[in-house]
Amino acid sequence: MTMFGSQWFASPSSTYEIEKSLCLNSPDSPYLSKTFGSAGNQKTWTFSCWLKLSRMLTGDGNYGGLFRQGNHYIGFRKTAALGRAHVNVSGVWSGFGGAADTHYHRDATAWYHYVLTWDTTESTAADRIKIYVNNTLLTLVTEGGTLPSEDYDGVWMAASAHELFRASTSDAYIFDGYAAELVVCDGTAYTPSSFAETNDEGVWVPKKISGLSFGTNGFHLDFKDSSSLGNDVSGNDNDWTVNNLAAADQSTDTPTNNHCTWNSNFPNDSNIVLTEGNRNFSHTGGDQRSTIGTMFPRTGKWYFEVKIVSIGGSSPAGLVGISQADVISQFDPGDDRHDKTGISLGYRLGDGQTYFNSSTASFGDSLTTNDILGIAWDADNGKCYFAKNNTWQNSGDPTSGATGTGAFSTTLSSDGRAGGWGPTASNEASDVYAGRFAEAEWSYSPPTGYKAFCTASLEEPAPKDGSTNFQAALFTGTGSSRSVTNDGNSNMQPDMILLTSRSDAYNNGFFDAARGVQKELQANSTAAETTLTAGISAFDSDGFSFNGTNYNTNTYTFVAWQWSAGNSGASNEVGGINTTTTYSDATAGISISTYEGTGSASTIGHGLGVAPTLIMVKNRDATDAWKVYHAGVATDPQTDYLVLNTNAAPVDDATVWNDTAPTSTVFSIGTHTDVNTSGESYVSYAFVEVDGFSKIGVFTGNASTDGPFIYTGFKPAWVMLKRTDSADNWVICDNKRSPSNPAALRLYPDTTNADISSTTLDFISAGFKMRASDGGVNGSGGTYAVVAFAESPFGGDGVAPATAR
Q: How far apart are CA 340 and CA 332, in angstroms?
């Protein structure tokens, strides 16, 4: 067995693994074709396929076809309604799956499951065509005509020519990306649960195809036979003819082991071109342009290769290397000038020099056409090694570890700003670089202990299921006693709730178990703690209960963001001030403490075992402001503070955090009255960035609706942003108020505003991408603090990869 065999992936509820996929590169005009010898059931059939989008997201065509007969097709939109699921019954009906501005499927980092059922025997028109994406039924919106009439005989399954992966003979209508486990069942309308299931961690995953009726013209393509990619394994022998496809178009990038590619969700301009399943990178125009990968692990040893396919100029002046996840430079890896906040390192192919923070250093040999650059990244020790055609440069040897003489030290930052390191590349116009991230694509064996950039090689995250420690709940107030039950994958008893109205002006109330369930503090106010006897009355095992009208006003709509911190508390006596009560879940990195101020600089124990990257403190007894420590606001964040209840920029003040960085056991407080008045009571909320569950970092804005991609290493459930170089509101988006992309509802926790309709971002399986250009969330050159919590991890050893959003 290879190290990337099935033993590296085991879904908790299903051991089924998809081994192969088909990579379709639309410029090659690839498709599959077949003419059925006899008619099947033209009234009822089902199409199911797993898909990973690539060039589909660049808007360079009209539709990406999936299943075509004549002028009738199903697929995805590639232009104005980018990423919209589409079905066209020519001359009868045409429409999209999704409402007017929702359900944009434009996540290039992971896989979607697409299911369409056609059943005109249904008496209800809306039931005759159904499109599901990741088991979510989309509302069909008409573009023309009316839905097919009852018992209408469609053209699919007729004794005629059919095609897969294109919607017409034009290249602009070809699907571009990866396809796996394609199944068509003739004569039966199956639900998505016939092809996939929700695993124990709440992730929609493939399951073994069995017990299905394929009818006359049904088929199952698993793409396992590279010499016969159209081979039908259903038992019907409905094999398909491949057109402009070859064995090299078979891939090991699958829904059960998602691989790194170049990232089309990275902000780019029209000159950047990603092809071959987002593995080849080139651009037209004068200046160099950059791209980054889709994976940024923070630990481990990683290997990938880049082949120089072609050179547009006299020599390759581009660079290949690694960068931090928060680098959004459009120019050179290694450049410290162009709209970025992190560190990157590039190997300059034309002369073999390294480029790091705008400084070059002689390192190795130059490369030319057909040469292969191997990159070995030792994230544990902050070292990067480069090889030309399997010869490690500068006498380096990655197997010798961090002390290798050929290693280039990147002086890896240990704070919370990076969020991981991963592949990056830039090139001159017309140069073409082929990234090889899958083991099966490598020309050379990796150094011992180095792995491919794929989800199965990531460390197992803890927690594996984000809903064990964070959930959001939507509800409508009743004005009387009632319970709110969480509908996340797991039952979760909250220890802290931030609750606000979506429909009307309302305070934003914090409630927690350490202070007592009825004790309210307002995120938008300096007000002292209030006891609300007619409000939240209990934290339940699966939600919370009310006994009155507070935060439960009749007919008002509300959202409750909830965190679990272990469900039990006790005094923490590690710091200079013993806490009254500390609730702490070190696995999830969440701590809630109450303490009494002394008026003298001291320390507070948090119980997390790792230095917190986010701390919020509020005086319970006085009208004092909320003080916030965020590790990303400066290189010395312990000298500054943010204010949760205002839009103010960071303030430098030694009396708040005592100019002392938090440690693995305590955080420091100075003599400021807002954090440490003698005899007054305080509450602190402390968080540690946890791989696969939480992200506490920064990014730089670009004032574009094609905004920065922020890697979190998980599919976010909740994101809070705060501009730190000017005065702007705190902004919260979540996946319950915005269940599909784009997330177009904002709440400001520092104000009493209700929901604000404003397109803000796309939730992505590995992070989020800014889709707004306003200064509050994505101003040009603006710096933004990020706090995010997970719906599900991006992947990990023994963990199902998150589906695309």
A: 11
